[in-house]
Each structure stands twice: as C-alpha cells, then as structure tokens.
Amino acid sequence: xxxxxxxxxxxxxxxxxxxxxxxxxxxxxxxxxxxxxxxxxxxxxxxxxxxxxxxxxxxxxxxxxxxxxxxxxxxxxxxxxxxxxxxxxxxxxxxxxxxxxxxxxxxxxxxxxxxxxxxxxxxxxxxxxxxxxxxxxxxxxxxxxxxxxxxxxxxxxxxxxxxxxxxxxxxxxxxxxxxxxxxxxxxxxxxxxxxxxxxxxxxxxxxxxxxxxxxxxxxxxxxxxxxxxxxxxxxxxxxxxxxxxxxxxxxxxxxxxxxxxxxxxxxxxxxxxxxxxxxxxxxxxxxxxxxxxxxxxxxxxxxxxxxxxxxxxxxxxxxxxxxxxxxxxxxxxxxxxx
Length: 338
Fold this sequence. Notes:
Elements: E1 5-6, H1 18-31, H2 46-55, E2 59-62, E3 65-68, H3 82-93, H4 95-98, E4 105-109, H5 111-116, E5 118-120, H6 142-161, E6 166-170, H7 174-177, H8 187-198, E7 204-209, H9 215-222, E8 228-231, H10 239-242, H11 245-251, E9 254-258, H12 279-293, E10 298-301, H13 309-337
Parallel strand pairs: 1-10, 3-5, 4-6, 6-7, 7-8, 8-9, 9-10
Antiparallel strand pairs: 2-3
C-alpha cells in the first residue's frame, strides 16, 4: 500500500439529501482524496438506531432519543445499507471517476457508542444503578452490547461484500469508557466486542476514537484485530506522546492521524480563511508525523467529522471551511511526496 494516503472521517455540514451527498463525494474525488468516505449528513446515532427502531419493536425512538424496554431478536437483514449502495450507484453512473481514487470508505457507528445512546426502561432497567449517565443505559449490559456488535458485524460484512476498501467502526465513546480503567466492562469483553464487530471485514478495518487516548485505551486497541487506529491529533496533541512508531510496527497496524481541526467555534473578526490550516503549516505537521511514526504506518485525515460546523458557521460557511481544509491537507501531502 502506498502510504501515507488520505481519507476523511465521514460527516459534513450540509442538509441531508442525495444532491448534497453527490456534491461532497465529487468534491472529495476532484480534490484528490485517495479513499473518500460516503458523506454522513445526519447524526451517526440516528443513522443506525432510527432504522433499527423500525424493525425492533422493543426499541422506540421518541423526541430524538432511543428507549429499549425488553429483550429483542437480531434482525435478519441489515439496515442503513443505502449508504453503501450510494457509493456503488455513484460510480456506476460516473465510471470515469473511479479511476481517480485508490478505493472507498464506509463509516459504521460502533456497538458501544450506539449502546451508550439507548436509554433502558421498564423491566430491563430495574436494579440497574445509573453511573456516569443520569439514567440506565444499554451500554451497561453485556448482552445488549453483544447483540449490537452482532448487528454491526452483519452490516460490515455486507459493506465488505460491496467491495468497500476501508470499513470504519466508529467508537467515539471508547476514549471516555477507558481511562485508567474501563467503565462497565472488562478489558477482555471490550476486545471481544470490537473484534466481533470487524470479524467479517476482509478489507481494511478501522476504528475512530475521539479525544485524548489514555495508555490503557491505546493498549486495548493494539490488542484488537482492527487494522487502522484513527484519532484526533490536531486538537489533542497529547496523543503524540501516547503512540510510538513501534506500536504500529510490532502490531502490524496503521495510524490514521488527525491533521486538521474539525470542531471549533467562530471568533469575532475572523474570516473563513483564518480557520483553515495553510499548506506550508500542514507540510511541516505531516513531515514531523512521518519522522515520528514512519510514512509507511500513516494515513492522513481530518481530526473528526465536520458536521458540528453546520451549527457554528451555517451550511455555506461550514462547508467552505471543511472542503478547503481537506483540499489543503491533500495538497500538503502531495507536495511532500514530490
């Protein structure tokens, strides 16, 4: 594999419709992103729990929240497949663009993150003392997390069968769950859950974990079967001290390095371009990362998804900022390679 290469995390600050998905995907390809991800234009939670609530009667969506009141059967068919189908249909209609990418990427919200957003009620909530959260959550119960991991495994298999090259199981909650010691579950259980989620991925498996990564979380991730460890670095520079080159070489893994900031608030007096990292700055940033981790171990991408920019800057401003950041990121890496 020709490393470092570029990809993106997934979410974008535009209204959720097919026209915007096509616009974003085309822009990413024209910019030169090596492995574009299908655009996520809704919450990563609703993207999977909303369709699950339609086929699991015990799971209820109300007021943008999700409630589980009883045990449930795992659906026979996967949900949210339209996102993988989007990639397939996009290139069927535009085969000339397929030649411009090295491959494609899909983002799937992981079982722990989904379970952390499911509120328990009724009989299954009895006897469960809320910890950290203000009410009992599904993430506190092993058997629910296991069932969600099975659902995600089936979805990942379907995307793998669609020939998507990188399949990321996104677990932003994991950095919170694993500090000095894990919350709610043992380390072995968490490793088993993550491994189950990616067990049907024959292409490159990936996991995105937000925030500062603790040594305990790092060590747990290194023990999993997941190939790509994807983190924020631009806004969490402490992560540079957590990972070393030998972590990736000894464990045969890649580091997806957050290179441009994706979450920030407007500052009075600043113009659009003031929020965008310059090409020379990014070249130095990437060069230092290559020296620390080895270019063969690196993937270059934004810190996280860009959806929060929609609330902060509106659609027009948010998208302009996001796409210019990615453009400069790709340009910086390409100039370094030359």
